[in-house]
Amino acid sequence: MTANDVIESQAADWLARRDGDRWTPEQQQALDDWLAASTLHRVAYLRLDSAWQRADRLRALQAAERPQPVVPRVPAALLARPWMRRSLGGLALALMAWVLVGDFNLAKPDTERHATAVGKREAVALADGSRLTLNTATQVRTAVTTQERKVWLDQGEAFFDIAHDASRPFVVIVGTQRVTVLGTKFSLRRDGERLQVAVLEGRVKVQSDSAEAAVLTRDDAAVADARNLLVTKKTPQQLQASLSWLQGKLIFDQISLAEAAQQFNRYSHRQLVIADPAAAQIRIGGSFDAGNVEAFARLLHVGFGLEVQQQGDEIRISSPAS
């Protein structure tokens, strides 16, 4: 059995269970996760679902508009002939292809992809009135329909300004974690399977497969992974500083130079390299242009007397020679 055969079998199994009598919210969540895991999963599922729906519609139309057609009986003697079996088999395959391909083309998923390059930002307007602002090196997928509102944060950081709609909760999927809102403003940053959340307005619920769900409100921040969830309260000034990238700025409040370098390196192909532990521990504060790492390096030289050397795509920062 090929990999495609396995996926087709799994999709058929999901459809059979979905149409059963005991479909639960937990099963729906498991199906959503399976669909989100691979484009091949979604294609197989939509194709089979479309075929089954079309078959149901055809049966309904036949019953409502005309009597059931009489299917002529093929004599056993003809069925025994190879050419007849080949003809019937070819007809069956042609009908199946017509149903699958025709209906699948009518049921394309309404999913859009958006991405930003290193050092760039992009504003994305969704059909429901919500707005996303994507930070540097960010990738998202969006699916906003009359039934649901979903976004997948595959990489990077984004700020969400969500239009209120109680009938369609807005769900952001970040790996194994889900953030659910009705209407609010918040930011999400993904580093691998690690998620950082900051809430500017409203309420959001953060949940994962293992950790207990938590509801965050205004000025709350959280750090979560697949097993843990830590919630802290931020001052309005701290929260605004964490969102300074929306204006293309980086605001530091006495953080180490090593941490400041990590932040700058997200926004430029030219990377800051801190060459020694003494320089790495210097505390930095102030507001800086996120896209101008060269100007930041000059300030380090003027303000702290640090050595600055450019080597290709690296700017090496070191303590002054004794």
Automatic annotation (TrEMBL):
Listed InterPro entries: FecR, FecR_N, Ferrdict_sens_TM
Domain FecR protein: 113-205
GO molecular function: sigma factor antagonist activity
Pfam families the record matches: DUF4880 (PF16220), FecR (PF04773)
Source domain of life: Bacteria
Domain FecR N-terminal: 10-48
Protein's name according to its UniProt entry: FecR family protein
Source lineage: Bacteria, Pseudomonadati, Pseudomonadota, Betaproteobacteria, Burkholderiales
